[in-house]
Amino acid sequence: MVRKTSIWVVLSLALVSSHAQVASHTPTVFKPAQAARPAAPSVQNASTKAVARVNGSVLTDADLLREEYAIFPYARQHNGGIPKDLAPQIRSGALKMIIFEELVYQEALRRNMTVTAARLQRAQADFRGQFSTPDEFNAFVKSEFNGSQQLLQEKVRRSLLIDALLQAEVESKCKVSAAELKTYYDTNPARFERPETYRFQSISILPPQAPAATQAKDMRARAESALKQARATKSAEEFGLLAEKISDDDYRVMLGQHKPVPVSEMPPQVVKSLAAMKTGEVSDIIQVDQAYTILRLQEHTPARKVKLEEAKAQLGKELQEKKRNQLRSALDKKLRDNAKVEEM
User: Fold this and answer.
1) Which pTM was predicted?
2) Do residues 178 and 35 share a domain?
3) Domain residues for 146?
């Protein structure tokens, strides 16, 4: 059986990839829960060694570590560490991100963008509200900002300026129009084609690992017995319980249930049998190579093309995210082209 990759690895790799593309992400200061918990070491434990300079402004190990924990919040499940096989990718993505944020912040200052006192006060209140108790908040400020409320306020102001510039240069420009959706739909027809599929349950009699002279006869006898029992079932549940009890294939642990299978992925004899059946019917014995199988048809879905109305919600999100990433990457390139960036 193929071992399944653990979900946190998949997610973390996806995050690393998206950060490497300078994808959307809330400025790190607004992620206190990850840094505040004791299991994740404070970034104050990091050195103040420079990891990059952006137009002379120094970014340190502490800035980088804070961003790494934002990308990989599971660090607290690994005693504050990042798995060695993921560390280079996460570090690279985090470095790109802190440089990008610094470039955006400097551009906001260059444009004389400001944050109103009311907006700053509201953001600080929202930030404090993410903590369970005042003591937890104070512990975070002490750990991350040496107890300085002023330093925290400046970090919040910085994040708000970054957000404001990104809103102006990215978010306000990444909306997808109805015309763009229609154009994409019309020019990518294959993506919206859905093949003919069958959903069914199975009971399989498989050849033994050690072949014997009488195996074919014994298998056929087992298959005949299985067919008789299968045809006596009155529901999907009864068929599934039988499959769980007598089937040799791995689907028995799922009551014989298969997800919808495209016709192109099934042997011709299986397709022929399913095509002649009605929903809820049980097939005859079907031989595939040396195995015997019995199927119960649950659903037949003809080939079709997904209509634009069905696809537009998800498609709109995908196209908007694609446009967002393109705009952010373009902004990153533009700012870098006009800046002096040194990675240490």
Assistant:
1) 0.68
2) no
3) 7-169
